[in-house]
């Protein structure tokens, strides 16, 4: 069956899609769509293992600010954007080259199912694990991850039953927020996550509201 998706997110429709439509023009026609898909996933893995090297137990940002070099956060913003871009243009490129296949769709969404976890696990290093003063508890991290994965599962269960993938608004928003968060961390340091920023609330509190929404 032909791939069918509906995207009503204003961020995607009016801002990101025009950007992807310009980027796709510079991709050579001889490049296989699955190569774009896989390259994006590799970027996510590289980012994850790099952060894991500096912060294997999610404590570096909370107990030892500065342990993770600034360039790592900036590199995280770069890899996240690249993965986001590649995941957004691979389908366009497949249709452009008339090489869309059910296997390609399975490959794309199969890697997305892994990436959904890895994006979240990488981001926890910014927040840090709860150290009694600041940070996020392991239990809360688990809840965050569960919410994201449940949303992913529901979208694809809906696709299975209706034949149409109604893209969650959270996808584009989460990617833009992730990139912005990494850039913010690189610019001002992880301390920004450890200090209240409005009425005693932390930035992580705002992200929780955004995530649940």
Automatic annotation (TrEMBL):
<keyword id="KW-0594">Phospholipid biosynthesis</keyword>
<keyword id="KW-0444">Lipid biosynthesis</keyword>
<keyword id="KW-0443">Lipid metabolism</keyword>
<dbReference type="Pfam" id="PF01066">
    <property type="entry name" value="CDP-OH_P_transf"/>
</dbReference>
<keyword id="KW-0812">Transmembrane</keyword>
<dbReference type="GO" id="GO:0005789">
    <property type="term" value="C:endoplasmic reticulum membrane"/>
</dbReference>
<keyword id="KW-0256">Endoplasmic reticulum</keyword>
<keyword id="KW-0472">Membrane</keyword>
<keyword id="KW-0460">Magnesium</keyword>
<protein>
    <recommendedName>
        <fullName>Ethanolaminephosphotransferase 1</fullName>
        <ecNumber>2.7.8.1</ecNumber>
    </recommendedName>
</protein>
<keyword id="KW-0007">Acetylation</keyword>
<keyword id="KW-0464">Manganese</keyword>
<keyword id="KW-0808">Transferase</keyword>
<dbReference type="InterPro" id="IPR048254">
    <property type="entry name" value="CDP_ALCOHOL_P_TRANSF_CS"/>
</dbReference>
<dbReference type="InterPro" id="IPR014472">
    <property type="entry name" value="CHOPT"/>
</dbReference>
<keyword id="KW-1208">Phospholipid metabolism</keyword>
<feature type="transmembrane region" description="Helical">
    <location>
        <begin position="136"/>
        <end position="154"/>
    </location>
</feature>
<dbReference type="GO" id="GO:0005794">
    <property type="term" value="C:Golgi apparatus"/>
</dbReference>
<comment type="function">
    <text>Ethanolaminephosphotransferase that catalyzes the transfer of phosphoethanolamine (PE) from CDP-ethanolamine to lipid acceptors, the final step in the synthesis of PE via the 'Kennedy' pathway. PE is the second most abundant phospholipid of membranes in mammals and is involved in various membrane-related cellular processes. The enzyme is critical for the synthesis of several PE species and also catalyzes the synthesis of plasmanyl-PE, a lipid required for proper myelination and neurodevelopment, from 1-alkyl-2-acylglycerol.</text>
</comment>
<comment type="pathway">
    <text>Phospholipid metabolism; phosphatidylethanolamine biosynthesis; phosphatidylethanolamine from ethanolamine: step 3/3.</text>
</comment>
<feature type="transmembrane region" description="Helical">
    <location>
        <begin position="166"/>
        <end position="184"/>
    </location>
</feature>
<comment type="similarity">
    <text>Belongs to the CDP-alcohol phosphatidyltransferase class-I family.</text>
</comment>
<dbReference type="InterPro" id="IPR043130">
    <property type="entry name" value="CDP-OH_PTrfase_TM_dom"/>
</dbReference>
<dbReference type="GO" id="GO:0046872">
    <property type="term" value="F:metal ion binding"/>
</dbReference>
<dbReference type="InterPro" id="IPR000462">
    <property type="entry name" value="CDP-OH_P_trans"/>
</dbReference>
<feature type="transmembrane region" description="Helical">
    <location>
        <begin position="26"/>
        <end position="50"/>
    </location>
</feature>
<dbReference type="GO" id="GO:0004307">
    <property type="term" value="F:ethanolaminephosphotransferase activity"/>
</dbReference>
<comment type="pathway">
    <text>Lipid metabolism.</text>
</comment>
<feature type="transmembrane region" description="Helical">
    <location>
        <begin position="70"/>
        <end position="86"/>
    </location>
</feature>
<keyword id="KW-1133">Transmembrane helix</keyword>
<keyword id="KW-0479">Metal-binding</keyword>
<dbReference type="GO" id="GO:0006646">
    <property type="term" value="P:phosphatidylethanolamine biosynthetic process"/>
</dbReference>
């Amino acid at each position: 069956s032909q791939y069918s998706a509906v995207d009503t997110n204003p961020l995607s429709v009016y801002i990101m899609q025009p950007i992807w439509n310009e980027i796709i023009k510079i991709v050579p026609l001889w490049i296989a769509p699955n190569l774009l898909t896989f390259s994006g996933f590799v970027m996510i893995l590289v980012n994850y293992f790099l952060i894991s090297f500096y912060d294997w137990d999610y404590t570096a940002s909370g107990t030892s600010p500065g342990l993770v070099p600034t360039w790592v956060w900036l590199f995280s913003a770069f890899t996240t954007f690249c993965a986001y871009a590649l995941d957004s243009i691979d389908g366009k490129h497949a249709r452009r080259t008339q090489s869309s296949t059910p296997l390609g769709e399975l490959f794309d969404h199969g890697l997305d199912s892994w990436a959904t976890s890895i994006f979240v696990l990488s981001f926890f290093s910014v927040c840090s694990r709860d150290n009694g003063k600041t940070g996020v508890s392991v239990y809360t991290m688990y809840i965050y991850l569960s919410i994201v994965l449940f949303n992913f599962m529901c979208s694809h269960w809906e696709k299975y039953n209706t034949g149409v993938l109604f893209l969650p608004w959270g996808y584009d928003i989460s990617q833009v927020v992730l990139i912005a968060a990494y850039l913010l961390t690189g610019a001002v340091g992880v301390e920004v996550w450890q200090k209240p920023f409005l009425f005693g609330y932390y930035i992580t509190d705002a992200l929780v509201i955004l995530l649940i929404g």
